[in-house]
């Protein structure tokens, strides 16, 4: 377990061909059907609070990932503006 590195796939090997130690085999989602045997993510208290009481001061209610933007997003206040971003970034 300590020697295993997450998020690094050796070159020339597909994800389904990566062999995990027996105690982690249930987490190999490319070969195991269904969901993994534990929570997929554990939200923090801050995340839960943000979901229950979102900051809507600026009224941004739409977001869109920018393709090739290294995780960058654009945010919109209206469906029209969101649709314009969708066209701009090739989502339509």
Write a concise keyword list for the protein shown above.
20% helix; 92 residues; single chain; alpha+beta; two-stranded antiparallel ribbon
Could you explain the architecture of this structure?
The protein has 92 residues and is of the alpha+beta class. It has helices spanning 45-52, 79-88, and strands at 62-65, 73-76. It is built from 2 helices and 2 strands. A two-stranded antiparallel sheet has the order 1-2. A hairpin with a 7-residue loop joins strand 1 (62-65) and strand 2. The protein is extended. It starts with 44 loop residues before the first helix and ends with a helix.
Calculate the terminal CA-CA distance, rounded to whole Å.
43 Å
Sum up the overall morphology in one term.
extended
Gyration radius from CA atoms, angstroms: 19 Å
The chain-level mean pLDDT equals 85
Briefly, what is this?
This protein is α+β, with helices and mostly antiparallel strands. It is built from two helices and two strands, in the order αββα. The longest helix is centred in the C-terminal third of the chain and has 10 residues, at 79-88.
